[in-house]
Write a structure and sequence with these properties.
Elements lengths: L1 E5 L1 H7 L8 E5 L3 H6 L3 E2 L6 E3 L6 E4 L1 E5 L7 E5 L5 H6 L9 E3 L4 E2 L4 H7 L1 E2 L11 H12 L4 E2 L1 H12 L8 H12 L4 H10 L3 H4 L1 H4 L16 H14 L4 H9 L18 H16 L3 H18 L6 H10 L6 H16 L2 E2 L2 E2 L6 H14 L3 H7 L7 H17 L8
Parallel strand pairs: 2-5, 10-11
Antiparallel strand pairs: 1-2, 1-8, 3-4, 4-5, 6-7, 8-9, 12-13
Helix pairs in contact: 5-7, 5-8, 8-11, 11-12, 11-16, 12-14, 12-16, 13-14, 14-16, 15-17, 15-19, 16-17, 17-19
């Protein structure tokens, strides 16, 4: 029995990056051998075991055979005569098909080290085409390692997989899992670019793919192209270290612009409302968690109003706060402001950049929320016990007054 470290741990060590988890492959052993040494079985489709002390995963060397469409249509085979090379050849990329023995010796039958040095994602074999999840994984790796490029032959194979409908077999939960992980990587725009290059984005997120080629007014968007703008926005969110709900809201915020008729370009009046409906559609299809869905819908609907916050009357601001349920969920409201700040800063082109431009709307609306929340709604309700139907109106008026006072605005002054 021989044990090797494989996959990401070897790859990241060769890249000089921190190694988070270790996966192991065991050659020349049976499940009974593993159990006899105290390993705990956890694999459903094929024998995987947890080390009795470290709890790291140890999988028996295996081969696999495609038996049905999609990423679940495989039959796995394990036995002591399956070699290390047999196991490595079924892996997706050459950079993930390197094994490290206990003495530190590397087994690299598919030149993964060369591709690491040249910063290339290259498939190990044509078996890559049997699993459509691998397209999503390559895209996610591109977001994690933005200086890598996809080998032309690998991109061609991924395009072929898309044309043959393999991507259509992906279940929504798996698409969301990989996209959400990619959004949390260093440069999410690289994930989107890789998916576009092989035509997969149009199959899994057609609403998003529709943004490329749609122009915006150059005075406000020097990058002009809406798809390029969205890439800048998600990368800015990543650079700021924002949480997943904020990054997903950034990804979805301008979907409505993809519906604007070309004769109305580059103007996009009303895209916020159209976009909110599209976001709901995407989230329902991909089964996006409610925390991400609700923030994305709100951001798509309200980011234009947030951008105009300095010109809004106190009454309009309080309506915005109420519409966003900011009094019950102030943290989510702040997340929307952060996503809208990314929208504002994610604009650049022709030597012009908004990346470092202040976004005073965030502090302005947070101050308005603080002032409005200071109103004692319970006290107002008690004082109006005899006329309960007026309570919402009176609370609203008190909040408007508090915001007006906080900003020093007169009753008829726009602020």
């Amino acid at each position: 029995m021989k044990i090797y470290v494989v996959g990401g741990a070897v790859r990241d060590e060769l890249l000089g990056l921190p190694v988070q988890d270790h996966d192991h492959v065991v050659v020349g052993a049976t499940p009974e051998d593993m159990l006899a040494q105290g390993y705990r079985p956890v694999g459903k489709d094929f024998p995987v075991f947890l080390h009795p002390k470290t709890q790291e995963e140890y999988a028996l060397a295996r081969t696999e055979r495609k038996t049905a469409p999609g990423y679940k249509g495989f039959v796995f085979h394990t036995s002591p005569d399956v070699t290390l090379e047999d196991d490595l050849v079924r892996r997706d990329l050459t950079i993930n098909a390197i094994a490290k023995a206990e003495d530190g010796t590397l087994t690299d039958p598919y030149n993964g080290r060369r591709d690491i040095e040249q910063r290339i994602f290259r498939h190990v074999s044509d078996a890559f085409a049997e699993d459509p999840v691998r397209i999503l994984r390559v895209a996610r790796f591109a977001a994690r390692y933005p200086d890598f490029t996809v080998a032309p032959e690998t991109n061609a194979l991924m395009r072929q997989m898309v044309e043959q409908g393999e991507v259509d077999a992906l279940v929504p939960e798996r698409v969301w899992q990989e996209v959400s992980r990619g959004l949390m990587e260093q440069q999410p725009s690289r994930m989107l670019q890789v998916l576009r290059d092989c035509d997969a984005l149009a199959r899994i997120l057609p609403e998003l793919d529709a943004l490329w080629g749609v122009p915006q007014p150059e005075a406000h968007h020097p990058e002009i192209d809406t798809g390029v703008h969205m890439q800048l926005v998600v990368d800015y969110a990543a650079a700021r270290g924002h949480e997943l709900p904020v990054r997903f809201a950034c990804l979805m915020h301008d979907l409505g612009k993809g519906l604007t008729p070309p004769e109305k370009w580059p103007s996009h009046h009303g895209h916020e409302g159209d976009g909110a409906k599209l976001v709901e559609q995407v989230c329902k299809r991909l089964k996006v968690p409610s925390e991400c869905r609700d923030l994305a819908v709100m951001t798509a609907r309200e980011h234009g109003n947030v951008g105009r916050a300095l010109q809004l009357r106190p009454n309009t601001i309080v309506k915005l706060l109420e519409r966003c349920d900011a009094f019950r969920k102030p943290a989510r409201f702040t997340q929307m402001l952060l996503a809208t700040e990314c929208d504002s800063c994610g604009r650049e082109g022709n030597g012009v950049s908004f990346r470092d431009k202040p976004f005073p709307q965030l502090a302005h609306l947070e101050a308005a929320l603080a002032a409005a929340r200071a109103v004692n709604a319970g006290e107002i309700a008690q004082g109006s016990a005899g006329n309960p139907q007026r309570i919402p109106e009176l609370v609203h008026s008190a909040r408007v007054g508090a915001v007006r006072t906080a900003f020093g605005a007169s009753e008829d002054e726009e602020y």
